[in-house]
Design brief:
The chain contains four helices and no strands. The chain is mainly alpha-helical and 104 residues long. Helix 1 (4-32) packs across helix 3. It is globular.
Length: 104
C-alpha cells in the first residue's frame, strides 16, 4: 500500500509531465505562427514571464486559460490534450489536371 507521501510524489510527477506537455504545445504553436512571447502575453492579458513559465512547464495552464490559448493560437482545444495528435491543417485539395484522351 502506498503512503500518502508516495502518492503525492506520483501526482506531482504526473502534474509536471502534463504541464511540460501543454507548455511544449503552446511554444510549438506560437513559433509556427511566428508569434513572440510578448505578443501572446498581450493577447492573453498576462505577463510575458507568465507565458515563459507556461511554456517551460513551471506553471499549470488552467482550463479557462487553455480555452484562451486555443482561441489565440487558433487550434482546437484537444490540441493541448495528450493524444490530441498533431495539428491538422485543412488544405485545399490539389487541382486535378484534366486527363487527355489518346489520339487516334
Amino acid at each position: 500500500m502506498m503512503s500518502n507521501r508516495s502518492e503525492s510524489r506520483g501526482l506531482t510527477r504526473l502534474s509536471n509531465s502534463i504541464n511540460q506537455h501543454d507548455g511544449a504545445r503552446v511554444r510549438m504553436r506560437r513559433l509556427i505562427l511566428g508569434m513572440s512571447q510578448i505578443k501572446l502575453a498581450g493577447a492573453l492579458g498576462v505577463s510575458s514571464k507568465h507565458v515563459q513559465e507556461y511554456e517551460m512547464g513551471i506553471d499549470q495552464i488552467s482550463a479557462s486559460h487553455q480555452e484562451q490559448f486555443s482561441r489565440v493560437l487558433r487550434v482546437p482545444l484537444p490540441y493541448f490534450f495528450r493524444g490530441g495528435g498533431p495539428l491538422r491543417m485543412v488544405l485545399p485539395s490539389p487541382l486535378k489536371t484534366p486527363t487527355r484522351s489518346p489520339l487516334i
